[in-house]
Amino acid sequence: MTVMSKRELSRQDRRRRILEAARHLVEQQGAAGLSMRALAASVGISAVTAYAIFGSKAGILRAIVEEDRARFAVMMDRAGVGHGIDSIFRLLTLACDLYRDKESFYRAVFQQYFSAGGVEIREILDPGRHRLWHGIVSGMADEGLFAIPVDPHLLTSQLENIFLAAHMRWCLRGTGVDLLEQEIGLGFAMLVKAIAIPEHQAYLGSLIERFGDRLLASAAALPVEGPGPPAGQG
Amino acid sequence: MTVMSKRELSRQDRRRRILEAARHLVEQQGAAGLSMRALAASVGISAVTAYAIFGSKAGILRAIVEEDRARFAVMMDRAGVGHGIDSIFRLLTLACDLYRDKESFYRAVFQQYFSAGGVEIREILDPGRHRLWHGIVSGMADEGLFAIPVDPHLLTSQLENIFLAAHMRWCLRGTGVDLLEQEIGLGFAMLVKAIAIPEHQAYLGSLIERFGDRLLASAAALPVEGPGPPAGQG
């Protein structure tokens, strides 16, 4: 082993330890609590070294998201997400399985996402997520699964609307991943059924009823009535 | 005129002036910039008097939302929102007309809604909005417009998911009310078409195509590709 490769090994090792510590810090204090100084101190290196490896706090968040993306791609390959009317539901289940594995970490990431200062994390998460889903949605369009032509970018944005708002409820209410998955599943099934070809209508209708039944079985899915008088502002 | 009624008139007048000043402060500085002290100073009364009338800052926000609710109810009556497959689209148009009238004020309210400290404004807006839309959605169900039974609370929550996420994009991107209305309109049309009875399928399909075409005509509706490498985390 040459000196260079030892150095490289040590760099890789520091990189891995910094990312592990960063995940831990985010889990404990939210993404806002992630400071280069605290991070460097927690792994026993100087802040200068941490900056040299990752460039910035955004660089660390980006590296974490990329680690997850790689892990997610392996999961997608294994599960064979790629095609058919079920592909977006398989994608949803995979994402939720990832959350189940590290729920407090992902909840902290999305809490930061929905905070006023969450610009960085949105800029890192959003384009990547849009590209991934757009790929799946374009594939479904190419397979001829849609009877009404909706631009794949626009359909992807609507799926993201359901996805994001359900995540906001998840963060605000502290409900579990199962409820998140069912709420998004119901919305996805409705959006896809609206434009699907006739042969998938009955199946998607049964998904809508199944997700609806599961949600109704959970009291947390129904709105908590506020104490105030009716205040209906659109 | 008795002394009592003069006093009452003066109280009503102070109340009106405080609410006007509050709307102005929110428009200028966001709902977070609304302090009882600043508000009282701006209308030349003591903070004690402002507290005596409204109880708290949340009381002032609630009073503003209730003023809007009353205004919105008059608009709804005039427009005859109440029934038919178009009722949620009429409701959407009315809400957007309200925004067009005072865009910077409503944008500030929703910016506060999506900030970490927006608990108060969410607690004031959400139950009232859910009740209003649930009323419309329940009415549509009672009219027999839906072929697939979805609990009206669950359908309302899905409509709110589209509504809220589109508002988040509106706040973050600074795009106009027209785009907001078309994005929500597309999502609403898709959600309703998924469960609508056969006689409304063609009409809702045409709405989906119309909203889609309008959105495609606006470059802002399409995603801005981020500069970073693909980072696809579900």
Plain-language structure description:
2 copies of one chain form a homodimer. With 234 residues, the first copy, chain A, is mainly α. The first copy, chain A, folds into 2 domains: 55 residues, Arc Repressor Mutant, subunit A (Orthogonal Bundle), CATH 1.10.10; 158 residues, Orthogonal Bundle (Tetracycline Repressor, domain 2). Chain A is built from 10 helices and no strands. In chain A, helix 6 packs across helix 8. Chain A starts with a helix and ends in an 18-residue tail after the last helix. The relative contact order of chain A is 0.08. The C terminus of chain A is likely disordered. At the A-B interface, helix 4, helix 5, helix 7, helix 8 and helix 9 of A face helix 4, helix 5, helix 7, helix 8 and helix 9 of B. Chains A, B: It comes from Rhizorhabdus dicambivorans. Chains A, B: One of its GO terms (molecular function) is DNA binding. Chains A, B: Pfam families: TetR_N.
Please tally the β strands of chain A and state the result: 0
Radius of gyration of chain A: 21 Å
CATH architecture of the largest domain in chain A: Orthogonal Bundle
CATH topology of the largest domain in chain A: Tetracycline Repressor, domain 2
Give the overall shape of chain A.
elongated
The portion of residues forming beta strands of chain A comes to under 5%
Structural class of chain A: mainly alpha
Q: What assembly state would you assign to the polypeptide chains in this entry?
A: homodimer
Biggest sheet character of chain A: none
- CATH class group of the largest domain in chain A: Mainly Alpha
Spans where pLDDT lies below 50 across 5 or more residues of chain A = 225-234
**Ends of chain A: how far apart?**
67 Å
Mean pLDDT of chain A: 85
Order of helices and strands of chain A: HHHHHHHHHH
Which chain pair shows the most residues in contact? A-B, 75 and 75 residues
Number of helices of chain A: 10
GO molecular function (chains A, B): DNA binding
Pfam family, one (chains A, B): TetR_N
DNA-binding region (chains A, B): 35-54
Organism (chains A, B): Rhizorhabdus dicambivorans
